[in-house]
Design the sequence.
């Protein structure tokens, strides 16, 4: 498309959205508008943070792999022309201009109090369910986030000090929140926008399962037929030193993660078995590398065409997310006839040319900020029998946390636990629905925190703009008042009282939770604008989803495995006894059928 036509498309889409809003348009016009907005965001909302000092010296990268058709553990050599791009130690990027990311100075950065916001605006008084989803959808998000975002260990020195209000019974006054680890390659000062580096790769590479160090990967592997270790009971092996399940992401572990880590470890081994049958002379290493590549792509596909359309179930976004993977020609056409040229719009991103859109690839601080969706998690769990739906156990979250995960799964059984998650609902992402256990969350090392207050503080300290400025920088109209944000008069008054009547002080996360939602949406339209750009970008920039998404790299068996497998297929492959609950269920993250005696 010529530059003139592209500019016309972009400007027309933005004008249509501002006047009519994409979700109120007929579906073809809505798709035209969303695609045009994506072009706008690619042009206006990608910023490189590697401008203040070089990061190459600080980025840990492996030696060039002998076979460049495999993913490295630290994410290096995805882009062969820039081996450090997206690897561990590289910086988070930005979706807003760097000059808009300066950290507010004290005391402004502490106002209103994050602890006050947690107590007054976020505390779950009564569980508000998201009835179109199941709890597996909430667990899945955390499972995936552990593959995407990590700022590493916090800095204990000079913590943020949050003064408590009268009547607050927190044990420590002031409450202390450790600061995010600073970028070791940046001379950060008050005049410099903050930069932070990742402790995971920025790529969608399954690191939550496989880890990101050779030592861990070797500990996890069976070193036979490419497989990873599963113990005799069909569960993850134990880390003998820690006494916890051996996973690539042990922080904040709980039974929901235990189920998904086990499920996709089993899937890795099933892929190895298929490859071994097709290529009996392959080495253990070659089987492992290919199975990891295929499993990571499968998880990316499930997230793209199942989880995301499940949580934003508008007809236009369902079509748009499927088009991201399959193209507008659709899944059947793509499977039968293959790609139609290089167009990602017609034939989807997998197999299209790699594109960085003028900015080296990374995940962004703004993407991290809008993925703060902890209200999805319930406080209480009812575990049921797959045989008759009878109650087996009722547990609080603390009783299914990291130290109890293994015990609970052994008591309940994987199939019963998966069924219990499938028939229960997660929480809605809204105000007054933050899990209470996360407001007094105790990590396995004994550290106690109010994660709701931490969520607010993290977004502020990393220089993500507050709600109204964020909307301006995403080419959206800001809220003129709290009444303009929400038509609920009581909620508007509540927000105004916390923020002193100043809509410009409204925190991004609070605005996202308060604004009205498009039809079928489980999270805000403002957050969706970031996803329009970044959900595509992390496919566009990854050569294993673009130029190297082909049989010569994956094998034809691998391409077919990804193309023909759904979340329901994965569940039934390893736990066929779930069939009665999954009969007729199209999306594994929607409500399952309740079995009857």
Sequence:
């Amino acid at each position: 498309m010529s530059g003139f036509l592209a500019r016309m498309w972009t400007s027309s889409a933005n004008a249509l959205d501002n006047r009519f809003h994409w979700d109120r348009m007929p579906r073809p016009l809505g798709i035209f508008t969303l695609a045009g907005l994506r072009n706008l965001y690619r042009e206006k909302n990608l910023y490189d943070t590697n401008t203040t000092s070089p990061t190459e010296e600080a980025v840990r990268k492996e030696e060039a792999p002998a076979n460049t058709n495999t993913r490295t553990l630290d994410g290096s050599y995805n882009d062969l022309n820039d081996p450090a791009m997206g690897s561990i130690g590289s910086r988070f990027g930005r979706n807003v201009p760097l000059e808009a990311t300066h950290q507010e100075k004290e005391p402004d950065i502490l106002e209103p109090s994050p602890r006050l916001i947690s107590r007054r605006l976020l505390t779950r008084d009564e569980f508000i369910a998201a009835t179109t989803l199941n709890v597996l959808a909430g667990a899945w998000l955390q499972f995936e986030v552990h593959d995407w975002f990590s700022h590493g260990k916090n800095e204990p020195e000079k913590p943020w000090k949050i003064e408590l209000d009268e009547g607050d019974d927190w044990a420590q006054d002031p409450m202390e929140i450790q600061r995010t680890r600073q970028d070791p390659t940046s001379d950060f000062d008050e005049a410099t926008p903050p930069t932070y580096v990742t402790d995971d790769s920025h790529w969608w590479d399954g690191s939550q399962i496989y880890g990101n160090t050779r030592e861990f990967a070797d500990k996890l592997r069976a070193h036979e037929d490419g497989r990873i270790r599963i113990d005799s009971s069909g569960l993850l092996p134990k880390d003998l030193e820690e006494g916890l399940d051996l996973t690539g992401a042990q922080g904040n572990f709980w039974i929901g993660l235990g189920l998904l880590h086990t499920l996709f470890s089993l899937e890795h081994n099933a892929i190895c078995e298929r490859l071994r049958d097709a290529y009996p002379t392959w080495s253990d290493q070659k089987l492992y590398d290919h199975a990891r590549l295929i499993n990571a792509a499968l998880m990316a596909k499930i997230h793209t065409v199942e989880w995301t359309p499940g949580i934003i179930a508008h007809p236009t976004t369902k079509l748009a997310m499927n088009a991201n993977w399959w193209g507008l020609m659709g899944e059947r056409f793509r499977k039968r006839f293959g790609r139609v040229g290089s167009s990602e719009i017609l034939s989807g991103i997998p197999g299209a040319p790699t594109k960085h859109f003028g900015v080296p690839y990374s995940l962004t601080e703004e993407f991290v900020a809008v993925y703060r969706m902890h209200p999805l998690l319930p406080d209480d769990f009812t575990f049921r029998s797959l045989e008759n739906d009878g109650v087996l156990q009722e547990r609080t979250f603390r009783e299914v946390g990291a130290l109890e995960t293994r015990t609970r799964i052994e008591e309940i059984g994987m199939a019963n636990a998966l069924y219990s998650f499938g028939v229960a609902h997660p929480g809605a992402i809204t105000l007054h629905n933050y899990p209470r256990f996360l407001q007094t969350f105790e990590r396995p090392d004994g550290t106690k925190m109010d994660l709701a207050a931490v969520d607010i503080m993290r977004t502020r300290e990393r220089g993500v703009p507050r709600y109204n400025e964020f909307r301006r920088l995403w080419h959206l109209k800001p809220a003129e008042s709290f009444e303009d944000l929400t038509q609920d008069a009581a909620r508007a008054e509540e927000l105004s009282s916390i923020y002193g009547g100043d809509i410009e002080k409204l925190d991004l996360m609070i605005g996202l939770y308060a604004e009205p939602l498009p039809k079928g949406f489980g999270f805000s339209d403002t957050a969706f604008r970031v996803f329009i750009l970044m959900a595509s970008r992390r496919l566009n920039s990854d050569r294993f989803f673009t130029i190297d998404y082909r049989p010569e790299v994956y094998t034809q068996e691998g391409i077919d495995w990804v193309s023909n497998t759904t979340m329901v297929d994965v569940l039934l492959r390893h736990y066929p006894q779930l069939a009665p609950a999954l009969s007729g269920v199209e999306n594994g993250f929607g409500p399952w059928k309740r079995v009857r005696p």
Q: What stands out?
A: The first strand starts at residue 155 and ends at 162.
